[in-house]
Amino acid sequence: MTTRTIDRSTDLSQALDKLGPDETLKYNSDYLRGHIASDLLDRITGGVTFASNKLMKFHGIYQQDDRDIRDERRRQKLEPALTFMVRVRLPGGVCTPEQWLKIDELAQTHGGNTIRLTTRQTFQFHWIVKEDIKPTIEGLHDVLLDTIAACGDDSRGVMATADPADSDIHAEVAELSKQLSDHVIPKTRAYHEIWYGEERVATSENEEPFYGKQYLPRKFKIGFVVPPSNDIDVYTQDLGFIAVTGPNGIEGFNVTIGGGMGRTDNEPTTYPRLADVVGFIPKDRLLACADAVMGVQRDYGNRVVRARARFKYTIDDKGLDFIKSEIEQRMGAPFESARPFDLTTNGDGFGWRQTDRGTWNYGLFIANGRVSDLPGRDIMTGLREIAKVLSGNLRLTPNQNLIIAGVTPEDKPQIEALLAKHGLAESDKTSSLRLNSIACVALPTCPLAMAEAERYLPDLITKIEAILEQNGLAQEPITIRMSGCPNGCSRPYVSEIALTGRAPGKYNLYLGGGFHGERLNSLYAENIGEERILEILSEKLSTYANERAPGERFGDFVTRMIDRERAA
Amino acid sequence: MKFLYEHHIVDIIRRFPVAGVEADSLLAGLRPLQPRLYSLASSQALVGNEAHLTVARVRYELHGTARGGVATTQIADRLEMGSTIPVYVQENPHFRLPADDVPIIMVGPGTGVAPFRAFLQEREARAAAGRSWLFFGERNFRSDFLYQVEWQEWLDEGVLSRLDVAFSRDASSKTYVQHRMREQSRNLFAWLEEGAHFYVCGDGKAMARDVHEALIGIVEHEGGRSREAAEDYIRNLAAEHRYQRDVY
Ligand SMILES: Cc1cc2nc3c(=O)[nH]c(=O)nc-3n(C[C@H](O)[C@H](O)[C@H](O)COP(=O)(O)OP(=O)(O)OC[C@H]3O[C@@H](n4cnc5c(N)ncnc54)[C@H](O)[C@@H]3O)c2cc1C
Ligand code: HEM
Ligand code: SF4
After folding, report:
1. Is 0.95 topped by the overall pTM?
2. Do the chains contact at B142 and A81, CB–CB below 8 Å?
3. Which of A104, A478, B36, B146 is the 20 to 30 Å CA partner of B189?
4. What confidence tens digit (pLDDT) does each residue in A532-542 have?
5. d(C-alpha A498, C-alpha A236), whole Å
6. Number of structural domains, chain B?
7. pLDDT > 90? residue B170
8. Which residues in chain B have Cβ-Cβ distances shorter than 8 Å to A74?
9. pLDDT value at residue B6
10. Is A440 annotated as a binding residue?
C-alpha cells in the first residue's frame, strides 16, 4: 500500500516569510486590532491605511469610493470620495421588526437613505463616512446585532433556507444557523474594544483558540438548506448542510464541501466549483463537523497564492478522499452514507402563502435587494410602516428578496393595506425572468467592478422581456444573474443565463446553469455588448420555445443545444 | 461704512435714482477697477515656468440678487482655457521662508493656504531638512480640503511633518484653526522654543485676530507667563521676523 504524501509547502506549517503578505499582516495584527483605532481618528483622510482596510474586513467593514466622481475629484486634487460598506451578521437572514426599524433608522442617518439586502441574507449599508462607522455599529449593538466576520478570512454569515413549508423546521434551522454562526466567528475582543469602546483586559489566554493568529487562508461560507428548496445555492458554499427531516424534526444533515464561485479572467487555475456531498451526520455532530472542516482548511489551505486559497482548491489539490478522511478523524466519527434528497429550485416564492401554523407569509420581490423609495414604490417607507405593526418577523432571502413572516389572520388586512398603500402589493406581477434575477452591487461603490450590474440589469431585463413575450415565454421561470466582475457575488456561474463584467458595457455571457443550482453554466461568448447579448438570447430563446421537450428548463435545453453545436 | 458694504453703486443708484444721469456719464465718473492681489501658490524651483494661484470664487446674495466678485468670476466662469490676462508681481519681503533647517509653523485656512503650498514646493525642491507644520481650515472636509492629496503625499514623504485640519461645517460644534492650535498647545510652544517661524495667511477680519489671541494664550499657558509677558514674547517673535503675516 502506498500512502500519498501531502504537499505542505503552502500551508500554515510554513514560516511567515514563505507565505503571502496577508499572512504576515494577520499575524502581526494583535488579533485584528492593528492601527484601526488610530486610523479612525486621522482627519487628513476619509479612509484608513491599506493594512487597516484589510483588518476591518474581519469586522465586517470594507472601504469603497464613489467611482462616478473619482476623475472629477482627482482633478480637484481631492482624494477619492471614500466611504465604507458595513455588512451586518444576520444568521439565517431572520430579523425582528425592532431590528428592522433600527437598520432603517441607521440607513437614514448614516447610510445614504438606502439599504441593500444581499445574496447572503443580510443587510449592507453603503456610503458610511468614517466618523459614522462607530455610531452605526453602536446602533446595531442596541438591537443585538453586530458585523463580526461579515467579511475577511474567516467564517462568514451563516445562511439558511428562508421559507420552508414546515414552520417548526424553519425555526430549528434558523436557531441552528445562529448557534453555528456564534460558534465559528472570531473570539478576539478587538471588536468590542474598537467599536464599543470597551477597555482592553489583560489576559494570558489565547484570544483565538480555534483560528490562531493567522485566521483562515481566505473567506469561508456556510449554509443550511431545507429541501426541496435550494434557495441558498448549497453547492456554492464551502460547507453546506442539507437538512434531513423525519417525524420529529431535523434528524441530521447531508454535508457538502468545496463549493465556491470566484474566478479570475485569464487565470485558468481559478474556476467556480460545485460542492461534493460527502455523507450524512446526525444533528448533534453539527458543531464538531464544522470545527473539523474549518480546521482542515485552516491547516491545509493555500496561504502562498491567495487566488488559490479557497477551500475548493484545497480539496482539488489534496484530493477529496484525503480531505474527507482528515475531517472524519478530527470529527471523531466517519460520515454515514448520504440520505436521499431532492432539490428542485433555487428561486423564491412570492405573494401570500398560509403556513402550517395558520399564519401568513408574504414574499415581497425587491429588485436586486435594493431597499429605497422609488417612484410609485416606497419600499423603504412601506417596510418601515409594516415593521411598526408586524408581530412576526422579517426574513431576508438568498435571492435578495424579503419575506414578511408570521402575519396573523387578524393582522393580514392591515399588512395588505400597507403593501397596497406603498405600491408593494403587486411586486410579483412581473416576468418570471425578473423575479429570478440577481445583480451584485458593482458600480458606483464596489472597487472591483469593471462594468455596471445593479444599475443596468433591470433595463436589460426589460429588453429580454420583449423577446420572451414574442416567444410566449413571459411566465417561464428562467434564472439570470449579473456580476460587475468575475468574482461572482451574484452567484452567476450556477445561473441559466449569466453575465459577468469585463469592461464598461462589455460582458462575458454564460449559458446553461441548472435551474436549482446543480450544474455550472459554460462560457458562451466573451466580451460582448448589449446588442450581441440580445441577438444571442433572441436566437436561443426562440429555438427553446419551438424545440424544447415538455417541461424542459431553459438551462437544460441550451446545454443540450450547445453540446450539439460543439460536437458538430 | 456698513451701509456702503451692503450697498454697491448699482444698489445706491437703484435706491436713489438721479434724473438725467446716463450710463455713459455715470461710467465716466467711476474710478478704474483696482488690481486684485493673489498669493503665489507655487515655487518656480519645482514647477519651472508656471505660476499657480488659489482663487476662491466670490459669490453672495444681496438685496435678493445673486452677486459675484469681479475678478474671481471672470477667472472661474468667463475666461476660456488658454486666454491671457495682464498680471504683475508684487513682492512681499516680509513673508519669506527661513533657512532650510529652521522649523516652520504655517496657519492658512481657506485660500490662505496658497503661499504654504509654495513654501513646501520650495522646500521639497531644496530637500530642506527643517520640520514643517500646517494648520488648515475650511468648511467641509469632503468638498473643500484644498490640495488634499498633495498634503497627503508630502506627509508620506516627510516634506510636511504635521498637518492639523479644522472643518467648521462638518461637526455640530464649529471648529476653526485656532481650536486645533490650542489642542496642540504644548507641541506648538515647544516648536516656538526650538526657534520655529510662525506664519499666518488668509482672512484678516476674524481669523488673523483669533489666531493671534490663541498664540498669546498658548505662550501664557505653556510658558507659565503673565499676559503681558506673553504679549512681549510674541512682539519679540515679530521683531525677529519669526512671526510673519499676510492677511487680507
Ligand atoms: C495680499 C493679498 C493676497 C490675496 N491672496 C488671495 C489668494 O491667494 N486667493 C484669493 O482667492 N484671494 C486673495 N486675495 C483677495 C483678492 O485679492 C480679491 O480681493 C478677491 O479675490 C475678490 O476679488 P473679486 O474681484 O472677485 O471680488 P470683488 O468684485 O472685489 O468683490 C469683493 C467685494 O464684494 C463685497 N462682498 C463680498 N461678500 C459680500 C456680502 N456677503 N455682502 C455684501 N458685499 C459683499 C465686498 O465689498 C468685497 O470687498 C488676496 C488679497 C490680498 C490683499
Ligand atoms: C461591494 C463590495 C464587494 C466586494 C469588494 C466583494 C468581493 C468579492 C470577491 C473578491 C469575491 C471572490 C471570492 C473568491 O473567489 O474567493 C467575492 C465573491 C462573492 N461575494 Fe462578494 N464582494 C462584495 C459584495 C458582495 C455582496 C453585496 C454580496 C452579497 C452578500 C457578496 C457575496 C459574495 C458571493 C455570494 C460570492 C461568490 C460565492 C463564492 O465565491 O463563494 N459580495 N466577493
Ligand atoms: S461581483 Fe465583482 S463587481 Fe460585483 S460586488 Fe462582487 S466584487 Fe464587486
Report:
1. no
2. yes
3. B146
4. 999 999 999 99
5. 15
6. 1
7. no
8. 149
9. 84
10. yes
A79 touches chain B (CB under 8 A): yes
- Whether B209 maps to a domain, the answer reads yes
CATH number at residue B222: 3.40.50.80
Question: Which ligand is closest to the CA of B8, given by its number?
Answer: 1
Assigned C-alpha cell, B228: 503681558
CB environment B73-111: b (16+ within 10 A), e (fewer): eebeeeeeeeeeeeeeeeeeeebebbeeebbbbbbbbbb
Contact between A362 and A351 under an 8 Å Cβ cutoff? The reply is yes
Q: Does residue B35 sit within a domain?
A: no
As for the ipTM of the complex, it is 0.87
pLDDT, tens digit, 9 for 90 and up, residues A451-478: 999 999 999 999 999 999 999 998 899 9
Q: Does the distance separating the beta carbons of B145 and A43 come in below 8 Å?
A: no
Which of A 90-149 lie inside 8 A of B, CB atoms?
A: 129
CA distance B148 to chain A (A): 5
Residue A166 touches chain B, beta carbons under 8 Å: no
CA angle A178, A380, A441 (to 5 degrees): 70
Sheet holding A82-87, edge to edge: A61-65, A82-87, A123-128, A115-117, A370-371
pLDDT of residue B22: 82
* Residue B43 in grid coordinates: 515655487
> Is A55:A36 a contact under the CB 8 Å cutoff?
yes
**CA A514 – CA A496 distance, rounded (Å):** 6
Q: What is the mean pLDDT of residues B221-230?
A: 97
Which H or E element spans position A394? strand A393-396
Query: Are B165 and A81 a contacting pair at CB < 8 A?
Result: no
- Evaluate whether residue B52 is within a structural domain: no
Counting residues of chain A whose pLDDT is more than 90, the rounded percentage is: 90
CB pair distance less than 8 Å for B152 and A79: yes
| B172 chain-A contacts, CB cut-off 8 A | none
CA angle A28, A31, A36 (to 5 degrees): 80
Give the amino acid at B74: Q
Point out the residue among B145, B163, B164 whose CB comes nearest to the CB of A78.
Answer: B145
Give the mutation target among A263, A448, A508 for probing the ligand 3 site: most ligand atoms within 8 A of CB.
A448
Query: CA geometry: angle at B239 spanning B234 and B242, to 5°?
Result: 70
Any known ligand binding at A489?
A: yes
Chain B partners within 8 Å of A79 (Cβ): 148-149, 152
Checking if the pLDDT of A4 tops 80, the result is no
The verdict on a CB contact (< 8 Å) between A44 and B149 is no
Which residues of chain A make contact with B163, given a CB cutoff of 8 A?
A: 44
Q: At what angle do helices A311-318 and A286-300 cross, to 10 degrees?
A: 70
Ligand-binding annotation for A289, yes or no, is no
Ligand closest to CA A369: 2
Q: Rounded CA gap, A368 and A458, in Å?
A: 9
Alpha helices by DSSP H, listed for A223-319, are 286-300, 311-318
Q: Is residue A135 within 8 Å of residue A143, measured between CB atoms?
A: no
List Cβ neighbours of A183 (8 Å cut-off, separation of 6 or more). Answer: A287, A290
pLDDT value of position A3: 56
Which DSSP string corresponds to A299-330? HHS--S-GGG-SHHHHHHHH-HHHHHHHHHHH
Residue by residue, DSSP assigns A482-503 as EESSTT-TT-GGGSSEEEEEEE
- Report the amino acid identity of residue A270: T
Helices (H), A58-157: 70-75, 97-110, 130-142
Residue B73 located in a structural domain: no
d(CA A326, CA A334): 10
Give A260's DSSP letter.
Answer: B
Give the per-residue pLDDT at A1: 43
How far apart CA B114 and CA A327 sit, in angstroms, is 65
Domain range for B224: 104-247
